[in-house]
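Open question from group meeting: does this chain pack into something compact, or does most of it stay loose? Before anyone orders reagents, we agreed to write out a predicted structure and look at it together. Recording both the input and the output here so the notebook holds the full record.
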Amino acid sequence: MDKIVRRITRITVLLVTVAAIMGCQRTSLIGELAGQWQIMEITYPDGLKIKVPQKYPQRYYCFYRHTAELTYAGYEKTSKNMAVMHYDKPSLSLEFVYGLPDGYESWGIVLPEGQKPVAGTTINYHIEHQTRENLVLVTDVGTHIILRKF
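C-alpha cells returned:
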C-alpha cells in the first residue's frame, strides 16, 4: 500500500511540474514571425537583384502583434514607418495608415503601375518560405524579399 501511495504522489508531482512548465511558455500571437528581420536580398519585378548591405544601409522589417515597423540603422521613429499588420499565414498585409516611408523601395516595396504612395496604401505579401532564421516574402507585384532573423 505504501508503494502505491508513493507512486501516485510521484506521478502527481510529475504531472503538476509538466503542467506548470507548459503553462509558463510564452508564445507570440504571430508565432515565429514576431521580431526583427534583416533584409538580405531583394529581387525586383524587373529582375534587378540587390544584396542589401551593398546598396542601402541595413533595412529591417519588425513584426509585432498587429503592427509592423520598417526600420534601418540610425533612423528616427516616424509614423510613416509604422503599418497595421494583418496576418493569416501564409498571407500578410501591411496597411500604411500615414503613407509609405521615404525610400520605400529600399524595403522591396514596389507599387502597381499608376498607384500613388498615399495614406492607407496596403502592400500584400505571401510568405513563400519561413523557418526560425529565414523568411522569404513575395509581394503582389512579384518582388522577392529574403530576410534573416536578427
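Observations to bring back to the group:
The mean pLDDT is 87.
The beta strands are 35-43, 49-51, 59-63, 67-72, 82-88, 91-96, 121-130, 134-139, 144-149.
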